[in-house]
Amino acid sequence: MNLTSTHLLAISPMIVTGLTVLVVMLVTAWRRSHTVSAALTAIGLALAFVATLWVGFGSVLPHGTHSLSVTPVMVVDRYSLIFTGMVLVGGFFCTLLGKTYFNRFDDHPDEFYMLLACSVMGAILLVSSVHMAAMFVGLELMSVPLYGMAAFAYRNRNSLEAGIKYMVLSALATTFLLFGMALLYAISGSLLFNEIGAQPSLLGSRWTTIAVGMMVIGLAFKLSVIPFHLWTPDVYEGAPMPVTAFLATVSKVAVFAALLRFMISAPVDRDILYKVLSGLAILSMLGGNLLALLQNNLKRIMGYSSIAHLGYLMIVVVALGWHSSPAVSSAEAAALYLGMYMLTALGAFAVMTLVTSPYDGSDYAQLYHYRGLFWRHPYQAAGLSLMMISMAGIPLTAGFVGKFYVVSVAVESHLWWLAMVLVLGSAIGLYYYLRVMITLFLPERTEEEGVGAERLKGASCALVTAFVVTTVVWILGLYPTPLMNLVGTF
Fold first, then answer.
1. Residue 203: predicted pLDDT
2. 176-200 confidence digits (pLDDT tens)
3. What angle do CA 20, 86, 232 make, to 5 degrees?
4. Phi, psi of 189 (to 5 degrees)
5. Which residues contact 303 (CB under 8 A, 6 or more apart)?
6. How far apart, in Å, are the Cα atoms of 191 and each of 67, 135, 184, 274, 303?
7. 139 exposure class (CB count in 10 Å sphere: 0-12, 13-18, 19+)
8. Which of 193, 237, 395, 428 is the most exposed place for a label (fewest CB within 10 A)?
9. Which residues of 331-349 are buried (b: 16+ CB within 10 A; e: fewer)?
10. How many Å apart are CA 198 and CA 205, to the nearest integer?
11. Residue 46: how many CB atoms within 10 A of its CB?
12. Which residues contact 4 (CB under 8 A, 6 or more apart)?
């Protein structure tokens, strides 16, 4: 296949991101500067986002189909562009959080931004892949830099441990994924999603179910779905705050987008695999929320909360096997929920970065560190409170809109038991989200247990992130129509 200028324009977001990595690398080799590296990365990701908008709303894609194959391994369409935009937005704000967080480091953290941009580039490839080889390359290009990012604060034992744990368990997940891919190729003779799904003889085959099941296990590790979640709380707690934010947002968005596209095309037996997926969804919704009740560390709470939210999202995957043409498509519901969740999580981690950034050593993530935050920094406390009620799915918040779409898919697909478990899990989650909120408004304790007002200097990037994301979450909760119209273009 010959690449034309149209193909190059269609993948311009990935090209711009790759050029960002190259520019930051060359500038770092010439002269190390934390500010310059962070600024170049943020500018590059912003330009890649502009390119994504241009491709999506311009005349790059063919009229009528709104889809363009760029070599047999990846496709640029509305689906990939929306998730690419999410990945770039998440990467951009994580860059800003990194600028604030790593201001307290004596070492020059320029390499962090190269790793982050490389990971974003892998995520873009992952959401655009329609070929198992491209899925694997994109997943590894996204994951391998994360090993170094998680262990970037290597002088801190917890950070080093987080990087090692994530690397070992991620390698285990990769073995399942590769074995499933090899088995599916052996029985189908193809690595393309649509060619595999177009073979009726594979439907109902025991070996097909095993192969697809092993691939789902490999991706479930990345999504930290119970029982493949063991790495999540420790890695979330030990990794630097911007890396935890990246893991909770960009990596989850990219992997789930790839899983959903694969499952739409995969020739699977509904009665077996989708019942297993239903079990994983129930375990994640209940287990994630129940385990979060036991935590006193806000990063671990966010880790278990992400498990519960991915359990909610698994409902849209299960719905693929029960309803052929729902009014609200699974892709539409997943995009809306992931967008709302990503923004809410970024807002929460932005406030947590503001609390952590002035200090040395481990991140300030214990709940008592946030006690009385309202009396010292009322705007930060208000922002974190809004993020908590949005994650809980309270009406007039962005989280409620996303959760409403998932419930709609469950009801239209007659998945009543999953809808009931979602409601039950949300009720349990409301307790620990409100617990965090109440802590912010408790009377102040000693200075050692809180954050002094004079210690938030040099945190402008995280302040901008917190303000922008909080404002967007608030506006989308009141007026979600623009985002609903955007995801409705699938």
1. 65
2. 999 988 888 888 777 888 777 777 6
3. 95
4. 75, 15
5. 224, 232, 233, 235, 236, 237, 248
6. 20, 10, 8, 22, 33
7. buried
8. 395
9. bbbbbbbbbbbbbbbbbbb
10. 14
11. 17
12. none
